[in-house]
Amino acid sequence: MNVNPYQPLLAAIDEIRVEVAGERPIKTLKLVLQKEDLRKRFSYLPGQCVMVSLFGVGECFFAISSSPTQKGYIEVSVMKLGKVTSALHECEPGDALGVRGPYGNSFDVDAWQGKNMVFIGGGIGQAPLRSLINYMVDNRKKYGRMDVIYGARASKDLCFKKELSELEKRDDLGVHLSIDVKEEGWDKFVGFVPDNLLQVKPSPKNTIAVTCGPQIMIKFVIQNLLKLGFTEEQIFTTLEMRMKCGIGKCGRCNIGNLYVCKDGPVFSYKQLKNIQGEM
Amino acid sequence: MVNLDKLRETVKEMLAKEDVKYVVGYEKGTYGFRVSPSFAFTPEDADKFIFSPLCVNNLAIYPMLEEKLPLRKDEKEDVRKIGIVVKGCDSKAAVQIIQEKGMKREHVVLIGVPCTGVIDPRKIKARFPHQGKNVDVKEENGKFIFSIDGATYDIPKEELTFDKCKHCENPTPVLYDVLLGDEILSTEKEDYEEVKAFEERSLGEKWDYWKKQFERCIRCYACRDVCPMCYCKECMVDQLSPQWVRRSTNLSENAAWNIMRAYHLAGRCIGCGECERVCPMGIPLTELNKKLQKDVKEMFSYTAGLSLDIKPLSAIFSPEDPEEFIM
Amino acid sequence: MTTMEKLVLPKLEIRRLINGMLAEYRVFGPIDDDGVTLFKQIKDPSELDFTFTNSTVPPKTLLFNQTETLFKFSLGRSVKIDPVDIANERTVIFGIRPCDAKSFTILDQVFKGDYEDPYYLTRRKNTVLVGLSCTQPGVNCFCTSFKDGPASAENVDVLLTDIGEKYYVEVRSDRGKHLIASMKELLRSAKAEDENNKKHVEEKAIAAITRNMNIEGMVNKLDKMFENSLWKTIAMKCLGCGVCTYLCPTCHCFDIQDETALATGARVRVWDSCMYPEYTLQASGYNPRPERVNRMRNRVYHKYNYCPKNYGVTACVGCGRCIENCPVNIDIIDVINKAGEAKI
Asked: Residues B34-61: pLDDT tens digits?
């Protein structure tokens, strides 16, 4: 009983990248663990999360948005919303933070080898998908067709713009961006992400669909995926809840008898349909 | 004593009208000397209603517990009224809330019950600690009559009623739409004897007394949640930015919580005593509230919850006030 | 686990027994604090109240502290974490009732698992439970509904049962054996007559428990009635005060907050309640359990459906504290029995 799961590992902010400016800014923080041996030993899979501590303020549960194929650091993408995230937005490179994790289950990257992949993200929901997409791109040969469908309210609200434009240049995957409302200079799809999905019309054959974003978007994305012929076992999403311990003890993140921090955050649609609980 | 048939008839009449959603009253509890709040939506539900000296709950809190969720597209807001059975103290709570504009007068229909005192659950439990089956109580000639397992007990009222009932100035509800029974004139006066005796103690003695009490507080907030006056959408103690009171249970934070709550109730607390009844640790919260009640009376000649025509204490500005400015 | 030892202790020697414990252990026991029974640390056996039914705050507060400093830290550009020493003094909880002792086995499931909670588990490891059988159960006790009993030695290290002139002493574990080792002279082996007396006392206590919760098949029944109107009916009364959760021996929900004073601070864990709306309130303002009906239903399901599914045990020991202390007489026995009878 040597490890205290409530005590974070010390890390420092290496780099801060502004993804979205304005009212609801989003920043990606690159965190490097202080102890070098821990840096090497910290291993995770796409979909897993960490509890990031801002000492004196509090902790937040974030999906790791970087891929484990990029060694030595992890990245979390933070939207400024409440007490802790607002304080995180005031941080500067070099500031010390705490990291606990990795927690939760992951996307089943092993079972999905050989499958075609469709990633449907909205707004900040792209964060866990980014980890998965980059992981699969770094292991490109192991996976089939890949389609990235991503949208936001306006072009300024799109995250990871630089990476997405790099992905667009590739010819071994499709990138389908969208914004909700018409904009000067935007020549791609205009409309909601679920509608873009119908336009892209991915084939359900041997395909896994993963979607993350606002609840309302997920609802319609799943509706449309089912319309396109996807089965419940082929659709995956991540859920979020208010969290405190991250290790299934404080009780608050439960949906039915499942804890989002322990049994999630990755759930298949089939699982979600059968849980009786409030999401 | 309240005529139960009349009570149930009144409730049924009220429900028959289109504009009453439900009526809150009392029904038999599940064991011992308990009584439970009861909600009548249909005339059949009204048959469960009772009124006895065991009816301690202040039901005036229920209009403030209504949860209003965002409406769906073609959903209209349900603006129907709520009926409430109120004793004297409960009616003062309703008056105070309406004074503060916490709810509209038209939103509630008050069934007033003249009350001659209710039984303190702690006192009756001490007398009959092993009473499992639900018991009924009647009042006769200054005594409470119980029949338990064939035997009858009669106990003088003063041995069982709340301390608050002994000095009750409003046995008849101060506000009602229907009154079930004849008005009872008050023979008592609140003289704050216990508060005055406590004020005589030295500062050290006072602090030692309250230190012991506050150390026991487990910050369950039952006192706040049962109080009809505590209806802030976000309680000061739940605020995080900034955080006024930490959640740690130590003397400092516990004292801050209890004293701050007492001050937030100054000029508003109507002395129903529910806070003290529900406190699992037996902290004598009414002593704190009574002190502030006395101060408010002496400094501002103000008593809470008496009439709809009076404005709330902190909303009144009089040119005669000693301070030059509004604060 | 050693085979159970059966001994007797003359009633008059109870003082010496407790003094013997006090010599080597911290001892917590039931004391009367101005009419409220609480488990507090004692320095002398005379402080104990043997006439209690059960404490108001359950002894879970001794292992799962209401306020727990997880660690301290110093702030600045570089943060330094100061771990705290978790109290690992040898401790005795004297006079714990069988229901509360059972609650620890349920809390063990929560605090163990993939991530072990050092705060609870260190104390648990260093605490010896000396139980005291209930000879006069409370009116709302229903431990017998869960295959437990007022004189069950199942979850304690030593169990004392008052059989008149003596205490019948059952020693169930090595820890218990070690505890009484230095006081062996006070005890002698139990005779058949003593054992019969204990059985008699036990049967009398079980017969005195009149309330019963029909737990049979409840997990499956609850699975079928998630949308039942029963939850709304009960939740209408509920004030959301949280007393039931704070006084429940198996409730374990908590909050974690950082407290600072200038350049130093501490991360503190405090009890929380699922009955408060802020419990699940997200920073966006969205709340998955916005109404009291959601929170009430979640609480009932957690105890009687989710915990059985996750840990194989109902998270209720039948102590009756929630029933006694609920301001509006929400009676969990009544609730579950109604759920059992509900038409689906």
From this structure: 999 999 999 999 999 999 999 999 999 9
| C255 touches A at CB < 8 Å | yes
**Residues C173, C48 within the same domain:** yes
The mean pLDDT value for B158-173 works out to 93
Give the three-class secondary structure for C201. Answer: helix
* Domains of chain A, first to last: 9-103 (2.40.30.10), 116-238 (3.40.50.80)
How many angstroms away from the CA of C40 is the closest CA of chain B?
11
A53-102 residue pLDDT tens: 999 999 999 999 999 999 999 999 999 999 999 999 999 999 999 999 99
Token pair 């969208």 is found at: A178
- What mean pLDDT comes out for the span B10-16? 93
State the chains in contact with C (3 or more Cβ–Cβ pairs under 8 Å): A, B
d(CA B144, CA B142): 7
- What pLDDT does B323 receive? 73
In angstroms, what separates the C-alpha of A159 from chain C's closest C-alpha?
A: 19
Q: How many domains does chain C have?
A: 2
- Chain C residues touching B69 at Cβ < 8 A: 290-291
What ipTM is given for this predicted complex? 0.93
C130: CATH: 3.40.640
What band does A3 get if pLDDT is binned at 50, 70 and 90? confident
Question: Does the distance separating the beta carbons of B246 and C327 come in below 8 Å?
Answer: no
Pairwise CA distance, residues A222 & A117, whole Å = 15
Inter-chain touch B130–C136, beta carbons under 8 Å? yes
Please indicate, yes or no, if residue C33 is contained in any of the structural domains. yes
Contact C119, C86 (CB under 8 A): yes
Q: Provide the shortest C-alpha distance from residue B170 to chain C (in Å).
A: 24
